[in-house]
C-alpha cells in the first residue's frame, strides 16, 4: 500500500499545499517589518544584552496573551523548564510522570535536577496523557504515605506530572488536573509547542502551578531561541526570576550571589523580535488554520492515511500538521522519508520515544502500546504559515 505510487501521490499533495515551492521545510517562521525596526533600535541604543526595555514589554505581552500575571521570559524553552522544575521543589530521586511520546527537554531537565522521569501512556485522540489508563495504573502501582504517593516498586515518591501539549494540541487537561489533585502531584505544563492554543478560553500552560512555552525558530512565533515561564504564584515567580538571573542580589554598592542560579534570561534582541511576533500572532494563527484546511482537503482522497483531527471545544494553534500512516512498516516509512528528502521536502518522524533513550532505559514506565503505535505511524508535515498566504 505504501509504494512508489503512494509516495508520488503524497509528494503532490504536499506540493499543492506548499505552493509548489522547490524547497519545502518543516516549519519556517514568518517575519514582518517591526522585527527589523526593533532590532535596529537595540543596536542604536547598545542594549543588546539581558538589560533593556524590550524584555519587560515582551513579558507583559505574553502575560496579556496568556491571561496570567506572572511571566518570566527565558533564553529557551528548556531553560524555562529547568527553572520551573527547581522552583517547584521537586527533589533528587523523586519521580515525575512524563509522556514517552515527547521532545527530550521535559525528561532531560528531570535528570538535570536528579529526578527520575516515569514514562506514561498517551491517548490517540489528543496525543497527550491517557488519563483513564494513568488513573488505573497509579491506583495499582502506588502506595500512599501521609500526603504523598510512592512507587511501590522503586519506593520513590511520585511528586509531579508534566503533560506536553504535543504539536500544539491540548492534552486532556481537566482529567490531568483531577489526577494531580488526587495524587498530590505538582502540575507543570510543557506548552512549548502550544502558544495560541486554548481550552475553554484559557491559554495552555495556565492550568497548573507553572507552564512553559518556547519561542525557538521552529515555533508558531519566535525570538530565534527563547521561552517563557507562566507562574500561578507570585512567590514562585520571584524565585524563578532570581534563579534565571544567576541568583544575583544587586544593590548599587554591592552585588552578591545568594542562590545558585543560572544565566537563563532572555536578551533584548530576542525580546525585540518577540514583541513584533506576538503582535502578529492572530494573523499567524489564521494562516496556520488555512494550511491545516488545505491538508484536510488533500487527504480526503486517501484511505490509508488520516490527518490528525483536533478535538472540538479546544481551539488550537495547528503548529505541526500530523499524518497517521495506518499500519505502515518501519522500512516503508524510512523509504518514504528518504523519497521526500530527495525531492527537498522535509517531513519528520516523531522523536524516539523517551523510554528508548539510552540514559532513560532504566526509568519506570507504563505499558506504552499506544505511544509505540502512534510513533510508528506519525509523520510531521511541512506547516509553515507562509503557505496560508
Ligand atoms: C515539547 C517541547 N518541550 C520543550 C522544548 C524545548 O524548547 P527549546 O527548544 O526552546 O529549548 C521543545 C522545543 O523544541 C518542545 O517541543
Q: Under the CATH scheme, which architecture of the largest domain would be assigned?
A: 3-Layer(aba) Sandwich
The number of E-state strands comes to 17
Number of domains: 2
Total DSSP helices: 12
CATH homologous superfamily name of the largest domain? Type I PLP-dependent aspartate aminotransferase-like (Major domain)
Rg (C-alpha, Å): 21 Å
Could you describe the 3D structure shown?
The protein is an alpha+beta fold. The chain has two domains: 4-28 and 281-388, Aspartate Aminotransferase, domain 1 (Alpha-Beta Complex), CATH 3.90.1150; 34-279, 3-Layer(aba) Sandwich (Aspartate Aminotransferase, domain 2). 37% of the residues lie in helices and 18% in strands. The protein has helices spanning 4-17, 34-45, 53-66, 77-88, 105-112, 131-141, 173-182, 234-244, 268-279, 281-299, 330-342, 369-377, and strands spanning 70-74, 95-99, 116-120, 142-145, 148-151, 157-161, 186-190, 198-199, 202-203, 210-214, 227-231, 248-251, 254-257, 305-307, 314-315, 321-325, 378-381. Strands 1, 2, 3, 4, 5, 6, 7, 10 and 11 form a nine-stranded mixed sheet that branches. Strands 9-8-15 form a three-stranded antiparallel sheet, with no helix packed on it. Helix 3 packs parallel to helix 9 and helix 4 crosses helix 8. The radius of gyration is 21 Å and the shape is globular. Bound molecules: pyridoxal-5'-phosphate. The site of pyridoxal-5'-phosphate has 14 residues, from helix 4 and helix 5. Pyridoxal-5'-phosphate binds at residues 76-78, 103, 105-106, 164, 190, 192-193, 214, 216, 225, 227.
Amino acid at each position: 500500500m505504501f509504494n512508489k505510487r503512494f509516495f508520488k501521490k503524497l509528494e503532490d499533495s504536499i506540493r499543492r499545499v506548499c505552493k509548489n515551492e522547490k524547497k519545502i521545510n518543516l516549519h519556517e517562521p514568518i517575519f514582518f517589518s517591526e522585527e527589523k525596526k526593533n532590532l535596529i533600535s537595540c543596536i542604536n541604543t547598545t542594549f543588546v544584552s539581558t538589560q533593556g526595555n524590550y524584555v519587560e514589554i515582551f513579558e507583559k505581552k505574553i502575560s496579556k496573551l496568556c491571561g496570567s500575571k506572572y511571566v518570566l521570559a527565558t533564553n529557551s524553552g528548556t531553560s524555562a523548564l529547568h527553572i520551573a522544575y527547581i522552583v517547584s521543589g521537586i527533589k533528587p530521586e523523586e519521580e515525575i510522570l512524563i509522556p514517552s511520546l515527547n521532545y527530550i527537554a521535559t525528561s532531560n531537565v528531570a535528570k538535570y535536577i536528579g529526578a527520575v522521569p516515569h514514562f506514561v501512556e498517551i491517548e490517540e485522540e489528543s496525543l497527550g496523557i491517557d488519563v483513564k489508563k494513568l488513573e488505573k495504573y497509579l491506583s495499582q502501582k502506588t502506595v500512599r504515605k501521609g500526603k504523598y504517593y510512592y512507587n511501590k516498586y522503586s519506593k520513590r515518591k511520585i511528586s509531579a506530572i508534566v503533560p506536553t501539549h504535543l504539536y500544539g494540541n491540548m492534552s486532556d487537561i481537566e482529567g490531568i488536573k483531577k489526577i494531580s489533585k488526587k495524587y498530590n502531584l505538582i502540575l507543570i505544563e510543557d506548552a512549548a509547542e502550544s502558544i495560541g492554543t486554548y481550552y475553554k478560553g484559557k491559554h495552555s500552560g495556565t492550568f497548573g502551578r507553572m507552564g512553559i512555552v518556547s519561542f525557538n525558530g521552529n515555533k508558531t512565533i519566535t525570538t530565534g531561541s527563547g521561552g517563557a515561564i507562566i507562574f500561578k504564584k507570585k512567590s514562585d515567580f520571584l524565585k524563578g526570576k532570581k534563579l534565571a538571573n544567576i541568583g544575583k542580589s544587586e544593590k548599587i554598592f554591592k552585588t552578591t550571589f545568594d542562590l545558585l542560579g543560572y544565566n537563563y534570561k532572555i536578551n533584548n534582541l530576542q525580546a525585540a523580535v518577540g514583541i513584533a511576533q506576538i503582535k502578529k500572532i492572530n494573523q499567524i494563527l489564521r494562516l496556520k488554520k488555512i494550511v491545516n484546511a488545505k491538508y484536510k482537503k488533500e487527504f480526503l482522497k486517501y484511505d490509508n492515511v488520516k490527518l490528525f483531527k483536533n478535538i472540538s471545544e479546544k481551539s488550537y494553534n495547528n503548529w505541526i500538521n500530523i499524518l497517521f500512516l495506518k499500519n505502515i512498516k518501519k522500512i516503508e516509512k524510512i523509504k518514504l522519508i528518504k523519497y521526500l528528502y530527495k525531492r527537498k521536502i522535509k517531513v519528520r518522524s516523531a522523536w524516539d520515544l523517551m523510554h528508548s533513550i539510552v540514559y532513560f532505559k532504566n526509568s519506570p514506565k507504563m505499558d506504552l502500546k499506544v505511544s509505540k503505535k502512534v510513533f510508528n505511524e506519525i509523520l510531521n508535515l511541512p506547516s509553515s504559515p507562509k503557505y496560508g498566504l
